[in-house]
Amino acid sequence: MSESKLYRVKPEIAASAYIKQPDYQALYRRSVEQPEQFWAEQAEQFLDWSQPWQTVWEYDYPKGHIRWFEGGKLNVSVNCLDRHLAQRGDQVAIIWEGDNPEHDKKITYKALHQQVCQFANVLKVQGVQKGDRVCIYLPMVAEAATVMLACTRIGAVHSVVFGGFSAEALKDRILDADCKVVVCADEGKRGGKTIPIKANVDEAINNCPCVEKVIVIKNSGNPVSWDENRNVWYHEAMAAAPDNCPAEQMDAEDPLFILYTSGSTGKPKGILHTTGGYLLYAAMTHKYVFDYHDGDIYWCTADIGWVTGHSYMIYGPLCNGATTLMFEGVPTYPDAGRFWQVVDKHQVNIFYTAPTAIRALMAQGNDFVTRSNRSSLRILGSVGEPINPEAWEWYYHVVGEGRCPIMDTWWQTETGGILITPLPGVTALKPGSATLPFFGIQPDIMDGNGNLMSGEATGILVIGKPWPGQARTIYGDHQRFVDTYFKAYPGYYFAGDGARRDQDGYYWITGRVDDVINVSGHRLGTAEVESALVLHELVAEAAVVGYPHDIKGQGIYAYVTLNAGVPPTEALRQELLQLVRKEIGAIATPDVIQWATGLPKTRSGKIMRRILRKVAADELDNLGDTSTLADPSVVEEIIKNHAKQ
Ligand code: PRX
After folding, report:
1. Greatest CA separation found in the chain?
2. Which of 156, 160, 150 has the alpha carbon at shortest distance from 250?
3. CB 311 less than 6 A from any atom of ligand 1
4. What CA–CA distance (Å, rounded) separates 610 from 598?
């Protein structure tokens, strides 16, 4: 590993940074030694409260009980909008850049506030009350921010479902959260392609009795099927809605949103975040990790369907009164220079994206980058998966021209915000390392037996002590929350990732240690893909593993056993790919389907995934112990067929 490479903090970056090297240690120490005082100060500094809290924090990990600022009252939309109006009402809150490079718009804080109040009234007219769940299934239209914030204004809990998920996946999520209203668009546009959003909703809600109304944003303008009783046009409802809507005063621990993510077993889990702690943590990390200053143009390329879109495109930036850019399209449309054209067009200062995008653009050559100017860029960010040093160096030298530090931010849907990260004015960078913990975060490494390891170590990443942005439960299944995160390593939060800590205390995330794979920064449970495959009547069994993929980080490798006597054909392979797309979405489509007459199992019938992972990764001389297999000949056949892939 290129550990010898160290990129020291640049004086010009440090000069204007909020947090500088000499102050960092003391501040970090205070954050972990006097957490109560530290977080109380931050909560006062970052948020407007209408009533002070009674207790700063309270937790009992074995019960999965985590509370921050209980008794305190606030409203997220007030913190993201109303309180900015006097000072920055005419400042742009959101720059929206369309899929089509000729389309863009700028929305001021004043305008956004007005639209949010109007849509909050629309939701009320449609019967949505505090605590009700609203599903948001939208492409990256500017109205997405309005809809999310309008939910927070009246205390409705939003559940954003990524627009790339299929009707079937949408249905599961609507049912799990028992959503009363769905907000969608007629169609989406991405990379010049059309996405049938409303049609997917229609298909999904055929089986969702909980849904009373579907509010539809006119985006493409193409005709869509219409049910007079259930469907409402967004623009018509907005035209009739008053723009005055008092904000609901929420308890800090009232639910804010549910966001589904994949685990190693079972169906996706609805991660629940609450109001005060989440907003504080999103805002504080946004300000310090990206060193956001007034007037900066900030761009996070994530989709609102993922937690990065929630915390670092909407809530963190708007809470800080920032100008945040929202991009409807993809990095390679109309060509692979799009990101950098947008950077120049809007004079972006801070740019936050995923390693998979960096790798895809790197593969297209430097010309697409160098034909742009990019002199506005000051800070770069990376999130979602480990960034390989080669991609890091390209991002740093070619995109940033050696001028912009890269914040490699490690975190998860469950953590609400960034936990391990450099800070621009503080941390010397090592390509591929997420470096050091943010304030208040206490990472540790454990061995497989649950013993803490000190000094340089490689093992399981755990986090001691809660932080305000931490998830509070899995919606409707608190026991699963306890079992997943707090059982294996008592007293700690188990993140599901492995990590190495080097001699300087820097953390290097090595990837998931469970059956979750990370495909282009999208988190998928192998069990979900397997469940989709075995729905086919000709499939007897399926085992899915991740394997190294140059662009996606990990690809999806599926071993499929057909029923006895069924011939494996190309047509069947295509049917299976379609089935996965239909059940989950295009992001879950296997890259490889390998036919197998049998899967390697222990005598007790457990599939030995370790072997399947090694074969998929081409590590054939390193299969480990196969003596416990019920039928070792299965492995030989699997290796033989792998060679044909
Ligand atoms: O494996 C880690 C990886 O992404 C997982 C979390 O996925 P998700 O909940 O979808 O959230 C993604 C956006 C925060 C983690 O368990 N991951 C995320 N960031 C990094 C990372 N792996 C290495 N380095 C990172 N910077």
Report:
1. 74
2. 156
3. no
4. 15
d(CA 611, CA 614): 5
Question: What gap in Å lies between CA 370 and CA 394, rounded to an integer?
Answer: 12
The distance in angstroms from the start CA to the end CA of the chain is 30
Q: What is the CA radius of gyration of the chain?
A: 24
Instruction: Return the percentage of the chain with pLDDT > 90, whole number.
Output: 95
Residue 45: how many other CB atoms lie within 10 Å: 11
The residue nearest atom 24 of ligand 1, judged by CA position, is 386
Alpha-carbon distance values, 113 to 108, 137, 617 (Å): 8, 22, 51
Domain ranges of the chain: 11-500, 520-641
Identify which of 460, 497, 526 to mutate to test ligand 1's pocket (most ligand atoms within 8 A of the CB): 497
CATH architecture of 520-641: 2-Layer Sandwich (3.30)
| CA–CA separation, 31 and 419 (whole Å) | 13
Assess whether pLDDT exceeds 60 at residue 2: no
CA 494-418-449 angle, to 5 degrees, is 20
Check the annotation: does 386 bind a ligand: yes
CB 603 within 8 A of CB 630: yes
Tell whether the model's pLDDT for residue 272 goes beyond 80.
Answer: yes
**Domain 11-500 belongs to what topology?**
Rossmann fold (3.40.50)
pLDDT tens profile 345-401: 999 999 999 999 999 999 999 999 999 999 999 999 999 999 999 999 999 999 999
ipTM of the complex: 0.99
